[in-house]
């Protein structure tokens, strides 16, 4: 019997910033069409800006998936702070290293963000590039519904990428309980 590596999911802290930066840059290089930022954009961020993304003030949250002590995946929750928009939040930066895809960890990261959003009683929004079928299937399976398509949401090397805009209304669940 082969021993399985230990995997855990937990909120990232300031101590994780170097691993977060490395994984973020890997994600942007590995899947450029899945992120609106580019490696050039991210490489110019100051350390304190990267730390604020890694370990944001609550109710913001970045979850990390770890194999033993190695960060292999992430997903973030960004609340809207404005009076008129604080009923909404975004799930962003969902990424899992290629060797770990189809392991269930990506789903667990997204479910962790959904659980956090449910506590905040918000509409959780996310985007997925139209050709990113695995992400879109996962989001749909977890209850996200499309509310639009943004044409040419990104342009990479002259090629436009459309994004499906998705939402999961977690306010209804809270009021029904």
Can you walk through the features of this model?
The chain is an alpha+beta fold and 177 residues long. 33% of the residues lie in helices and 34% in strands. The protein has six helices and seven strands. It has helices at residues 17-30, 39-43, 47-54, 105-120, 133-141, 171-176, and strands at residues 7-11, 61-67, 70-79, 88-96, 123-129, 145-156, 159-169. It has a seven-stranded mixed sheet. A hairpin with a 2-residue loop joins strand 2 (61-67) and strand 3. The longest helix has 16 residues, at 105-120. It is globular. It starts with 6 loop residues before the first strand and ends with a helix. The model has no long low-confidence stretch (mean pLDDT 93).
Q: How would you summarize this macromolecular structure in one to three sentences?
A:
By secondary structure, the protein is of the alpha+beta class. The chain has helices spanning 17-30, 39-43, 47-54, 105-120, 133-141, 171-176, and strands spanning 7-11, 61-67, 70-79, 88-96, 123-129, 145-156, 159-169.
Task: For this entry, give a set of tags.
7 strands, single chain, 34% strand, alpha+beta, 7-stranded mixed sheet, 177 residues, 33% helix, globular
Overall geometry comes to globular
Helix-strand category: alpha+beta
Count the helices. How many?
6
Strand content: 25-35%
The main β sheet shows up as:
7 strands, mixed
Spans of at least 5 consecutive residues whose pLDDT stays below 50 are none
> What strand line-up does the widest sheet have?
1-2-3-4-5-7-6
Distance between the termini: 45 Å
């Amino acid at each position: 019997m082969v021993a399985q590596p230990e995997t855990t999911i937990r909120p990232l802290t300031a101590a994780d910033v170097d691993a977060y930066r490395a994984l973020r840059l890997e994600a942007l290089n590995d899947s450029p069409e899945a992120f609106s930022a580019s490696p050039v954009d991210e490489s110019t961020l100051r350390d304190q800006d990267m730390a604020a993304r890694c370990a944001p003030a609550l109710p913001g949250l970045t979850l990390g998936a770890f194999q033993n002590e190695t960060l292999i995946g992430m997903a973030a929750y960004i609340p809207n702070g404005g009076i008129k928009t604080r009923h909404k939040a975004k799930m962003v930066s969902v990424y899992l290293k290629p060797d770990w895809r189809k392991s269930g960890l990506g789903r667990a990261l997204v479910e962790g963000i959904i659980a956090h959003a449910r506590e905040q009683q918000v509409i959780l929004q996310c985007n997925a590039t139209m050709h990113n079928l695995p992400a879109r299937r996962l989001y749909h399976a977890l209850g996200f519904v499309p509310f639009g398509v943004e044409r040419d949401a990104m342009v990479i090397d002259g090629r436009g990428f459309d994004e499906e805009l998705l939402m999961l209304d977690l306010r209804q669940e809270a009021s029904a309980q």
